[in-house]
Amino acid sequence: MASRDFATDILSALSIAANTLSRFCQDLYVWASPDFGYIEVSDSCAVCSSIMPQKKNPWVLEHIKSKAAHVEGCYMSALNVMKNVIYSHCEDMCGESANYLFPGIEEFKVMCELMEVSIRGISVKKEHMLEKARCNFCTVTELANYLVRYDKISFRMAHDIVAGVVAYMTEHHKNADEIGTAEVNPIFEKLFGRKTSMTDEEVRAALDPVKIAYAKTCIGGTAPDEVNRQLDNRQAGLDRDNSELALRREKVCAAKAELEATVKTLIA
C-alpha cells in the first residue's frame, strides 16, 4: 500500500481552513464582549449565562472554535497512523489511516454551517466602532507618517515623537482626538529642538480613521474601491470553483452510470 496521501491532503487543507475560522471567531468573540462592543451576535446564536442574567454568551462561536480542534485532531490521527509504516500491505495504512477522514469532513461541514448562521445574524455597531477608533490611539501611526512627509524627518524620529505624545496623553487621561500641535510641539522640541510644520487641521486629518481608510488604495488596502475589487476577485474565484465542482460532479455521475450499465451488460 503506497500511500493514503489523499486523506492527509484533505485533512490538512481542512485543518488550515478550520484554524482560520477559529481565529476569525476569536476576533468576533472579543468584539462582542462589553469591553469592545463592536458587534452583537444574534439571539439565535447565543444563550444567557446560567448565573449572570445580564451576560450573553455567543455559544455558536465557541462551538466553532472547539470544532477546529476536532478537525485538527483527525488530521494528526491520520498522520501518526501513517508514520513508520512499511511500503507494503498492513492494516495501519489500508485499514486505520483514513478512519477519521469522514469525521473530519463532517466536523468542518458543521463549522461552515454554524459560521454562516453566525455571520448572517451579526449586528455591527458602526458608530461605536468609529468613536473608539477616533479615541483609542489606533491611528497614531499615520501621524508618524505625516511627520515624515511634512517635516522631512526619519520614521524613527517620528516614531519617538508620537510615542512621547501618546505617553503624555495617557498620563493626562486624554483621548487621541484631542491631539494637536500643542501636544506634538513640546515633545518634538524636547527630542529634536524644533517644532512641526503641521497645523492643527493637518494633525486632525492624520488621526482621522475614515480618511486613513480611504487613503489606503494599494493592493490589499482599505479604500472602498480596493475592498470591492478584492471582494469581486474572491467572488470570481468562488464562481470558477463552483463551475469546476459542477463539472466534476457531472463526470462522476456519468462514470457511475457507465459503470452500472457495463455491470448490467456483463451479468445479463
Q: Tags for this entry?
A:
268 residues, mainly alpha, Ribonucleotide Reductase Protein R1, domain 1, 3 domains
Polypeptide structure, described:
This protein is mostly helical and 268 residues long. It has 3 domains: 5-124, Fumarase/aspartase (Central domain) (Fumarase C, Chain A, domain 2), CATH 1.20.200; 132-215, Orthogonal Bundle (Ribonucleotide Reductase Protein R1, domain 1), CATH 1.10.40.30; 227-268. The chain has 11 helices and 4 strands, in the order αβββαααβααααααα. The protein has helices at residues 5-31, 59-82, 91-96, 101-121, 126-135, 140-151, 155-171, 181-192, 200-207, 209-215, 224-267, and strands at residues 39-40, 47-48, 56-57, 123-124. The chain starts with a helix and ends with a helix.
